[in-house]
Amino acid sequence: MASKKSQARHYAVQAIYQWQMTGQDIREVKEQFLTEQDQGGFDSNYFDALLQGVSGQLSTLDQQLKPCLDRSIESVDPVERAILRLGAFELIFRMEIPYRVIINEAVELAKVFGAEQGHRYVNGVLDKLAKESRNAEMSPR
Asked: Containing domain of residue 94, as a range?
């Protein structure tokens, strides 16, 4: 059974994808998800924090991802783009979560939702970003 935080990430990727594709207000997307999902099955506060974080920090996230990508963020597969933005948000703004956990969760999400080799791309991009944003954490002590 996935942890409530993992399940929150799972739903957040779907919600971020929907938000990217429809241009709906993120609050509307969030409300829709909260009415459709069993609230006990996931950490709804973390889900909310992820949605608010990704939508509120979008330009910062895209700026930070840019040097790690081999193409523009807009040309990245929309599912993988949602996963990368989610992972970037956690790497940059959720320092209490170890970078390995964030990358592993993102890779698992890419295996579920992404294209056949999408998880490899997500892993490579977030690994580069972690080297920038989590340098101290990654350095051998």
From this structure: 4-136
